[in-house]
Amino acid sequence: EIVLTQSPATLSLSPGERATLSCRASQSVSSYLAWYQQKPGQAPRLLIYDASNRATGIPARFSGSGSGTDFTLTISSLEPEDFAVYYCQQRSNWPQCTFGGGTKVEIK
Amino acid sequence: QVQLVQSGAEVKKPGASVKVSCKASGYTFTSYGISWVRQAPGQGLEWMGWISAYNGNTNYAQKLQGRVTMTTDTSTSTAYMELRSLRSDDTAVYYCARDGDYAPNDYWGQGTLVTVSS
Fold first, then answer.
1. Which of 28-87 (A) contact B at CB < 8 A?
2. Tell me: the pLDDT tens digits for B87-110?
3. Which secondary structure element, helix H or strand E, spans residue A104, and what is its range?
């Protein structure tokens, strides 16, 4: 099973600051990596797919990069609505998939 | 617009079974699969399995093999997930999500809380 490790577990930042979230895979997942945002009481929302493509309606402040085993989600300038938990997901062995443990972005 | 609407919350006793439904609309049901993902209270996301709405093929997470069955009814565009021999650690919110070949899960149901308690 491919294991995804997200870091840090918690990121404490202020609105307007830049957020950098990491996701590392235990083996190569090519570019089959997605990022999701989840707010309390809500279903996950797709942000980024294929490592670097923004999903429909996602603001340009969200960007993804990486390939193989190391991936990054960057939020260029945090808005109040961006404070949430973020998960990475790999689909390289579709239909199976795995999720990372999540990074919580909290208000400092 | 694409929508996945799940059935309501359930409370079950240990050892019982639960069946959660997920009704799809706004797209051709048989052109996509459905994945099921669960989230225990305060925990992360756990993939449970996948079913093709086209031909009914399934792929289950190894830890749930033998306890989970996923089915679809193409006449009503509804997917089902049944989990048997429930334990307290099966208490979670269960989500269905649309699933394309190697594609991400772009639409999700609202979630169904299943509580297992004696």
1. 32, 34, 36, 38, 43-46, 49-50, 55, 87
2. 999 999 999 999 988 889 999 999
3. strand A103-107
